Amino acid sequence: MQVSYKSYFDIPDDICYLTTPGSGLLPITSKEWRLKRDIDFFSTATDLREKQGEFNLAVKKSIAEFFTVAIQNVYNTPNFSTGFNTLLDRLPKDSKILLLEGDYPSVNFPVISRGFQYVTACIDEQLEEHIIHAIEKHQPSVFILSIVQYISGIKINLEFIKQLKSQFPELLIIGDGTQFLGTEVFDFSQSGFDIVGASGYKWLLGGFGNGFILVSPYGKQVLFPNLATQGLEIDKMWAGKSIDQLYFEPGHIDTLAQGTLQKGLAFFKEHGLENTAAYTRSLVETAKAELSKRKILSQVVINRAETSTIFNLQIDQRHYTMLMENNIKCFPRGNGIRIGFHLYNDENDLEKLLSIIDTKILK
């Protein structure tokens, strides 16, 4: 295994931080930048307030370059849910939507609560086959899913998404990347997704209060089909903004939050996302083997070739308090206890977790 990235983060030696699926950590450089930024912002001698538009445009450029998407198709949002609810209100009202059973509530609830006609596919070893069957049977116009499931950690096969888009080019494919982006290289332009949104506070090292929506040309055509013919006038105060931008970015955006996301992306760029992803992948593969050996992963997760950075330990949730008392940061989810491995974790974290499992849970 490569050298650990833990030294770039303020993590006490006795803390095993495995709860990135709930909230990720910030690099030391991001914390230092935030401190200086706040000092500068509170000074009346600076022009940071006047340059908030310019600043957020620079953040948007960083996002566009990081995920390979045209900058005019990137929208800064306070979080995934805000952007997602906005785009749902732009979908045709007669859309039939395919969802996954038990997907993240912030994905499924806004669809169902709006009264859209919807169908579902179940999540198990044959997830992709169930999706194809549901599409062929129900012929939905939109497919919405989390790329990685928040409880189980089950990850969709990304090559399957590309094939799905090729097979059904008019199917609008929308992904929640909050539990995925930052864990491996992702080229949006070649992904097969028409829209991907995410919050930055988990795997992207971005802290709270930021997110984004990425939209393909086809996705933009579906969401804003009549922009060219609507004849809407934009007040001169909004000069330089497009109508679609006003939907997704209707008000001022927190530059401290968006800047923190930008610093997170810069960290990945400096160290190479392909390198951090390879490091984490190696740790995750080892963890899966060890946890499978102890029979505390679901058979669905064990059987699927696709492995994310999230695992749900199939142990009684009464052990949660004991794990936390032993400085194993985790969280009860579903029928077990959820953990996740990111670039700031290492083999020592895994060994500590396994030791506690062996001596205090499986004894």
Summarize model confidence as the mean pLDDT. Answer: 95
Count of strand segments: 12
Order of helices and strands: EHHEHEHEHEHEEEHHHHHHEHEEEH
Spatial arrangement of strands, main beta sheet:
2-8-7-6-5-3-4
CATH domain topology of the largest domain: Aspartate Aminotransferase, domain 2
Give the helix tally.
Answer: 14
Name the CATH homologous superfamily of the largest domain.
Type I PLP-dependent aspartate aminotransferase-like (Major domain)
**Helix content bin:** 40-55%
> What is Rg?
21 Å
Assigned CATH architecture of the largest domain: 3-Layer(aba) Sandwich
Structural class: alpha/beta
CATH class category of the largest domain: Alpha Beta
Separation of the first and last Cα atoms: 29 Å
How can the largest sheet be summarized? 7 strands, mixed
Uncertain stretches of 5 or more adjacent residues: none
Q: How many domains would you count in the coordinates?
A: 2
Shape: globular
Name the beta content range: 5-15%
Characterise this structure.
With 363 residues, this protein is of the alpha/beta class. The protein folds into two domains: 6-18 and 273-361, Aspartate Aminotransferase, domain 1 (Alpha-Beta Complex), CATH 3.90.1150.10; 32-269, 3-Layer(aba) Sandwich (Aspartate Aminotransferase, domain 2), CATH 3.40.640.10. Helix content is 42%, strand content 14%. It contains 14 helices and twelve strands. The strands form three sheets. It has a seven-stranded mixed β-sheet, sandwiched between helices. It has a three-stranded antiparallel β-sheet with strand order 9-12-11, with no helix packed on it. The longest helix is centred in the C-terminal third of the chain and has 21 residues, at 273-293. The protein is globular. It starts with 15 loop residues before the first strand and ends with a helix.
